[in-house]
Amino acid sequence: MPVSLEIREISAPQTWPLRHQVMWPHKPISFVQLPEDEGGLHFGAFLDQELVSVVSLFIQGDQAQFRKFATLQQYQGQGIGRQLLGHVLSYASSQNLSRVWCHARSSACSFYQKMGMEAEGEPFIKNGLEYVRMVKSL
Predict the structure, then answer these.
(1) What is the rounded distance in angstroms from the CA atom of residue 73 to the CA atom of residue 65?
(2) Model confidence pTM above 0.85
């Protein structure tokens, strides 16, 4: 039986276990809970009802930032994250936003470039990791 990918809006608390497991497993789960989560939009990619990838979108004026984009390790490299981010970019475009941006781990910049995003500004260090601001005009 083929595996079907479903992308849908989820609650912030539904994102936390996956964010924690993928991004910061050695920190307390509170480390991946954002004060802004209550006002954000959260999307999940499900494979046969299993949540395998999450991303959160925060709209401010005519721009949006996505944060805490994570895919379970065993599902990385299979196009799931690409489909989820594509969904978020389409959603942002449908809301007439002018641009979407994120703080990407430097190790992931090539992924975001393939999604049509460009680096802006200089890399910076946060929580011991190097990040770069990636932007996409819509």
Answers:
(1) 23
(2) yes
